[in-house]
Design goal:
alpha+beta, 4-stranded antiparallel beta sheet, 12 strands, paralog of FGE (formylglycine-generating enzyme)
């Protein structure tokens, strides 16, 4: 049966999104193999840090710091409220419909399913969770999980990450209903990766540096969610925990949220669940969550 244009504009986002990196995986199958362990504290500069990086910092000032809560401490933020499991947004003006890039959404929002209360702590910034530092990349889900556990934290679940991004207002972008390329580090010109370089240890660092378009964490004043969390869309993809993987579709416990700096969806709801826990690539990073103490 034919689907009308009006019907196609309703985007009811459930637990799974369009596979954003499938083409890369198909062209570079070795990236899916279990890699050599990386010691996050003693790694090349593409694993994050505040120095030794050639990327250009944006002109916009750093966003103001949200007041810390006693439950989460100074380095994390409290996320507390009512979460809707299934949300629908209708795009009223497309930038590129084929790539799911919407300029503006209708402010009428659909909520389906049983609403639930959520209360947890989340890192203010992408790992290493430092204002002004470049977020880590080239990390696998396994390495991300280990890094969070070493700090007494854990990876965020898909739903936790989504809620921290959209808030109780359930906005499609962390900053509202209209896409703003100058708010978050998104919509940068795509650079074609040389996939063969990722098969040779001595070439990886140079290729990652060539592809790199990160900006320092917290440096884009408009890229703040309703809960005060920085850089949740754009900059780097972020690993999260897929609590109910569909094994018949080849899913693992590893999923990616937020998107990176390129011209992609860069919204709160979509998720990529096609990569296994050992996958790593030039734009993949993470942040941590933690249960509220007491």
């Amino acid at each position: 049966m034919a689907v009308s244009d009006a019907s196609r504009t309703w985007l009811v986002v459930v637990g799974l999104g369009v596979v954003a990196l499938a083409a890369a995986a198909a062209l570079a199958p070795r990236l899916w193999a279990a890699p050599r362990p990386v010691r996050l504290g003693h790694a090349p500069n593409w694993l994050g840090g505040a120095s030794g990086h050639a990327a250009r910092a944006p002109a916009t000032p750093a966003a103001p710091t949200r007041e810390a809560s006693p439950e989460c401490g100074s380095e994390m933020l409290l996320v507390d409220g009512i979460y809707c499991p299934y949300v629908g947004h209708r795009c009223v003006e497309w930038i590129e419909e084929s790539r799911d890039r919407c300029r503006r959404y209708d402010e009428k929002i659909l909520c389906e399913g049983t609403k639930v209360s959520k209360r947890f702590c989340i890192d203010r910034y992408e790992y290493p969770n430092q204002a002004g530092a470049y977020p880590a990349v080239m990390t696998s889900w396994v390495e991300a999980e280990q890094a969070c556990l070493a700090e007494g934290k854990r990876l965020c679940t898909e739903d936790e990450w989504t809620f921290a991004c959209e808030g109780e207002t359930r906005v499609p972008y962390p900053y509202g209903f209209e896409r703003k390329s100058d708010a978050c580090n998104i919509d940068r010109t795509y650079r074609d990766p040389d996939f063969s370089a990722f098969s040779h240890d001595r070439l990886i660092s140079e290729e990652v540096s060539r592809l790199d378009q990160r900006v320092p964490s917290g440096s884009m004043a408009g890229c703040v969610s309703p809960f005060g969390v920085h850089d949740m869309t754009g900059n780097v993809d972020e690993w999260v925990l897929n609590e109910a993987p569909k094994t018949d579709k080849g899913e693992d416990v590893s999923s990616l949220k937020g998107g990176y700096w390129g011209p992609i969806r860069a919204r709160c709801r979509p998720v990529t669940s096609s990569h296994n826990r050992w996958f790593r690539f030039y734009q993949v990073g993470f942040r941590c969550c933690r249960d509220v103490k007491g």
